[in-house]
Structure formats: C-alpha cells, structure tokens
Specification:
- The protein is of the alpha/beta class.
- It folds into two domains: 287 residues, Aminopeptidase, CATH 3.40.630; 110 residues, 2-Layer Sandwich (Alpha-Beta Plaits), CATH 3.30.70.360.
- The protein contains 13 helices and 15 strands.
- Strands 1, 2, 3, 4, 5, 6, 13, 14 and 15 form a nine-stranded mixed β-sheet that branches.
- Helix 1 runs antiparallel to helix 3.
- It is globular.
- The protein binds zinc ion (ZN).
- Zinc ion binds next to loops.
Length: 403
C-alpha cells in the first residue's frame, strides 16, 4: 500500500506546480485542473473502477453499482489555492485510492457500493466562492448565482466550463446522486496543530466552526502629513491600528481567532493622512455565542477609539457561515472502528464535507500537520502519518462497507 501511495504522490506532484514558488496553481477549469482530472481517471481505471463526471463537474470512481444506494463515499479535492501546498485536498484523494488498495490486499469483500470522489473547484481560487462543486450538487448554490461568478479576467464560470469541454447548461442540484450516498468520509491534512500537540497521527472532526467576514469602514479626514498638527488630525489609521490589536486581544480571551488580513487605504499616499481605511475582519470560534461575543467586543473597542480620533465607523457583515456539526452517530461509529480513543477536534476551515453534511451523514479524518502550516508551499505531513491516515481510512471503509 505504501508503495502505491508513493507512486501516486510522485505522479501527482508535478501537476500544476509553479517552479518559481514551489506552490500549486491548480485552479478550476484550467489546464492544470484538466491534468489533475486526467490523473484521477487514470488512477480509477487502473483499479477497474467506473469513472463518471457529474453534471457539476465532480468526478466519481465507483466500485459496485452506483444505483444500489447506501454507498460509502470517500475523497476530497485536487484543486488548490494560489501557491497552495501539496496536501490540502490531494491527500484525501490519494489516501482514498491507497485505502482501496489496502482493502483489496486484505481480501475485503464489499457489501455496499464504494465511491471515490474528486470535488470540483473546492478552494474557489478562480471565481472567489469555495466548494462550488459540492454547493451546486447540494443545492446550496443555484445555477443563476453560479452563472454570475467571474474570474479576474472577467471569464464567467459557464464560459470556463465550456472552454474545458463541459456543459454548463447541465449544472444544478443533484438530489438523486446524494440520495444514493449512505456515508461520506473525507480525509484531510490538519490545518492546525491540535494533533501535533496531542501526539496523535489521526483525528476525527467534531465540527466546522462558525465563521464570518465583517468590513470595517473608518472614515476620517485627508490632510497633509507634513503640516497638520497631530492634535488637529482625524486619522482613521490610528483607529484601525487600535482595532487590529483589539481583535487579537478579544480572540485570545475567548479562545477564538480573529484576523484583519486585508486592508484598503484612501488616498493611499505616503505623505497624506488617510481619509478612509477599510479593513476586513475574518473571525471564527467554536460556537456562535463566542463568535458574537468576540465580534461585538472588537466593534465596541473600535467605536471607543473612533470617538477619540473623531473618526466615523461603519461595520457591515459581508458573509456568515453557521456551525457545521458532523453527524454524531457516524462520528461515534468511526471512533469505535478506530479503537475508541481517537481525538475528536473542531476546525476553523471549510470543506466539501461541511457542505455535504446538510444532505448526507458525513465525517472527516484529519492527518497530523506538525507545523500547522496550510495554504502554503510549506504545508507538510510526514510520511508515517500519511500512511497511518491511509490505514485508518481503510479501517473505516472496511467497517462501514464490508460488514
Ligand atoms: Zn481542502
């Protein structure tokens, strides 16, 4: 099994990789995406699986009759963020094929259909919306909204699909497909250090934290950086700076995370006091009440400082995703299959599994990431842990599909 894991990893490694950065640029419906899709097809065919691409561009490789129902499905995605790492997504797909190899080596016989899936456009790197393939399938993204998506060059999602040889007219909800799935288990590299800190190779997801994005507009008064006395200024940069520090403090107090990762300044001149500073806050917490508390406290701190600075503040919530609690029965079943002492952990990152969990029983396995770095060329999981992940996934699939 570890040999097949190696071979798959080696063949996938060069696809969509930038020589300049060492990171991956596997964006939806590009040449790199087509290369990954061909790779998936070849892996599936080499294992005598039936490959199909659904109406939303997700690839499925079937062992057994897809129409029989109650299928056990595993897999993840092969696309990447800009200059992403090798593991986020591909580890789940490679591990799925490797787990099947392991089960065949064990002589397992399947009582339920098994499918390996590669969800399209999970990262949303090109069109700005994550999990497009699974959102369309589950009906959480309508065809009309999907048609409005545009990339940085103004190319629409349907145009991009068509250029890649797919029929964009067919996209939309696929309840019949979801009705055939009895359980979906996504293996994913951990995007934090919880497993490293607990000393475990593999963990089980409890929930995906609720998260939201808020835009803070700080409006002050543009003026000359050389001639305006400090006491006469209405400088929104000061208010913004205090707000960034407050976000850090409040998140730490609540055990949450809060980040100002994007900022725009007007007029954006070296020798001008800004008239406007616009900052975007991303915040996530284990539960909604905590998240509300954190964001309310950050806003309060921002308003207090704005009053001092003579600055106007407007706060707009731009997006919000409620908590996703993975099904307890499947989670407990998986923990039992794995011996009962696997750590159960929450995550602040979104996944196709989170989207699917609204429609089918869904679970996730995480594989240790010693540095916690993700969405970067430095993202890494040691080989021993990857192999442990494959064996755990094989055990889970065997427990669910073979008994
Ligand atoms: Zn991912």
């Amino acid at each position: 099994m570890s040999q097949s894991f190696h071979a798959m990893w080696a063949s996938l490694r060069p696809l969509g990789r930038s020589d300049a950065s060492g990171g991956y640029r596997r964006y939806a419906w590009t040449g790199a995406d087509a290369d990954c899709r061909l790779w998936f097809r070849m892996q599936a065919e080499a294992r005598r699986l039936d490959v199909e691409t659904d109406r939303n561009g997700n690839q499925w490789a079937w062992l057994g009759d897809p129409a029989a129902g109650d299928a056990v499905v595993t897999g993840s995605h092969l696309d990447s963020v800009p200059d992403g790492g090798a593991f986020d997504g591909p580890l789940g797909v490679v591990s799925a094929f490797a787990a099947l190899d392991e089960l065949r080596a064990r002589g397992a016989s399947f009582k339920r259909p098994l499918a390996i899936v590669n969800f399209g456009d999970e990262e949303g790197a090109r069109f700005g919306l994550a999990c497009v393939g699974s959102r369309l399938t589950s009906g959480q993204l309508t065809k009309e909204k999907a048609y409005e998506l545009r990339d940085a060059d103004g190319i629409s999602l349907p145009q991009a699909m068509e250029a890649a040889g797919y029929d964009p007219d067919a996209i939309g909800p696929d309840p019949e497909r979801l009705a055939r799935i009895g359980a979906f288990v996504e293996l994913h590299v951990e995007q934090g250090r919880a497993l490293d800190l607990s000393g475990d190779s593999v963990g089980i997801a409890s929930a995906i934290w609720p998260h939201g994005r808020w835009r803070f507009d700080f409006r002050g008064e543009a003026n000359h950086a050389g001639t305006t006395r400090l006491v006469d200024r209405h400088d929104p940069m000061l208010t913004y700076a205090e707000t960034v520090l407050a976000a850090r403090t409040e998140a730490a107090l609540a055990g949450a995370v809060a980040t100002f990762g994007k900022v725009a300044v007007e007029p954006n001149g070296v020798n001008a006091i800004p008239s406007l500073v616009r900052g975007w806050l991303d915040s996530r917490a284990a539960d909604q009440a905590t998240l509300d508390t954190v964001v309310t406290a950050i806003e309060k701190a921002a308003r207090e400082r704005a009053d001092k600075d003579g600055v106007d503040l407007a706060v707009v919530r731009e997006s919000f995703t409620p908590v996703v609690e993975f099904e307890h029965a499947l989670r407990d079943e998986i923990n039992r299959i794995l011996g009962g002492s696997v750590p159960v952990l929450g995550t602040g990152a979104g996944h196709d599994a989170g989207i699917l969990s609204a429609s089918v029983p869904t679970a996730m396995l995480f594989v240790r990431n010693p540095t916690g770095v993700s969405h970067s060329p430095l993202e890494f999981a040691p080989e021993d842990d990857c192999v442990a992940g494959v064996l755990a996934l094989a055990d889970v699939l065997e427990g669910l599909a073979c008994h």
